[in-house]
Design a protein that fits this description.
205 residues; 2 strands; mainly alpha
């Protein structure tokens, strides 16, 4: 079964300008798991990694009311909190349905299998401790500026995660994973463009 992100979603976003490869009939399949769901290790890594990725975004956006965010940034933050909280629940239900360990919704290193080796790593685009402290210490227009800058970085990491998933042999054949990744690619690509416009409209320092 061939899977690819719709070409229209790839246009206009420098972070994801290169077309994502489709997985053709001759793609080398990763390890298969028993049951009705054709998922592979790359799908598991994507879902668990996205839970921790979303968890950090929720913390970042949750600071808007107490940090003097503007109305427009506050609305954006509320949308991010609501949408990504719902998505975490969907991802965890996907794990539960497949009898997999449930990933805790915390911004922490995630277990990954790369080149046959187990490792713990932070997901692409996630803020480091210094960046989180910088955001937490900001107020008013500086919160808006710092939030938008770092959430663009954060969303860019999610795009990278989708790219990695689609490049993985046998991945995204599970209909749910394909839908997750397609929706994330579309929604976060659009939000990057919107946030860049908001950032450009802020007064200079």
């Amino acid at each position: 079964m061939k899977r690819s992100i719709p070409t229209a979603l790839l246009l206009g976003l420098g972070l994801a300008a290169a077309p994502l490869p489709a997985l053709g009939q001759d793609a080398k399949q990763g390890p298969q798991y028993p049951g009705r769901y054709p998922f592979v290790q790359a799908d598991i890594d994507f879902v668990s990694g996205m839970i921790t990725h979303h968890a950090q975004a929720i913390i970042m956006a949750g600071w808007a009311p107490s940090h003097g965010a503007s109305k427009s940034v506050g609305i954006l933050c509320a949308r991010i909190v609501n949408a990504q909280t719902d998505e975490i629940h969907i991802f965890q239900q996907w794990q539960k349905d497949r009898k997999l360990p449930i990933t805790e919704a915390k911004p922490m290193p995630t277990h990954m299998v790369m080149n046959g080796q187990d490792m713990m790593m932070m997901m692409p685009g996630m803020l480091n401790d210094a960046q989180m402290k910088e955001l937490e210490a900001s107020q008013g227009v500086e919160f808006d500026r710092t939030f938008l800058k770092y959430m663009i970085q954060h969303h860019g990491g999610a795009i990278t995660m989708v790219n990695t998933l689609m490049e993985s042999p046998g991945a995204a054949q599970d209909d749910a994973v394909y839908k997750f990744s397609s929706d994330i690619f579309a929604d976060q690509s659009a939000e990057i463009q919107r946030m860049q416009g908001m950032l450009d409209a802020l007064p200079p320092r």
